[in-house]
Amino acid sequence: MSILNGSLSMGRRMAESRMLDECTITRPGEKAWDEELGEWITTQVVVYSGRCRIKHPSTVARDVEAGSQLLAVSFTEIHLPLAASGVMADDTVTVDASPTRVEQAGRQFIVTAPFDGSQSTALRFRVEAFDERRLA
Question: Domains (ranges, CATH) in the chain?
Fold first, then answer.
């Protein structure tokens, strides 16, 4: 095994050891008519369920001007094991449990974009909050 492969393997183990949260990633599936409710119901397809890590890649927020408002923008990432696959933009991430921040359980995020690259230690996706903390 080359030095690069050894380092990469060690980096992947370290990345996964920091994935202490549990999350479920879903996307809309088929629609079915519910006679009782009299409306179409969309089933949710589970894309991934397991270990994850929610983090800010930078603690520094960036000021942006939107119309006549000055907003502070920071980005959040979700990290998944490399074995996870199939996650796409617009998927919904639900934090099921977070031992280090219990109040995170139940929070939802929307996947906006992947971070691509070779020699990755984890799958990383940019996400936006999709709950009461989301900016209008």
Answer: 3-129 (2.40.10.270)
